[in-house]
Predict the 3D structure of the following.
Amino acid sequence: MGLDLLELQVRTKKTKANRLRQEGYVPGVIYGKGVSRPIILNRKNLENSVRLLGENAVFNISLEGRSELVRIRELQRDPLTREIIHIDLQSTQEGEKIKAFVPIHFEGKHVLEKKGYIINRQMNKIGIEGLAGTIPAHINVPLSAYDLGQSIKVQDLELAEELSILEAPESIIASINKPGREAEKLDDKADINENTEKEEEGAQV
């Protein structure tokens, strides 16, 4: 999951963040052992890297003539343009275990949608743990194996052996339903409760 060396520059205190963004740079911070270093990156290069490897990427950087392994710790995006406006990096080492929240990608949604079904998501990301460089950009969930009324659980996910899932196995990721099905269930439950209350009132008379 490595990248070619990504060039960074040290950010000076006098440089304003808004000006950097206008000039095509992204301000950020590298966090290490008790220290933090302000840096700037070329936005285009960073966007390409994140698009290719995801928001949990581990890669090498070059800063002041030195090479260093880092991982993406957090990204901030503009709410309208979705461009990256700030990045936090964490200094790491080969063989070090890290934890990350990885996005879930559903494959084959169109097949279920053609049947008139909908996917009710309950989780968009999954917490996993693994060695630096082994964290995937996303986790694929093939929907072809599921049908109406079925649920996709954490225990159904297939990951590489070197990765550990940090979520409860029984946690539901998503369920396959028809539009309005959940509302119908709530209405049926309300009717049952109402009838039960009437029966109890009749018994008390």
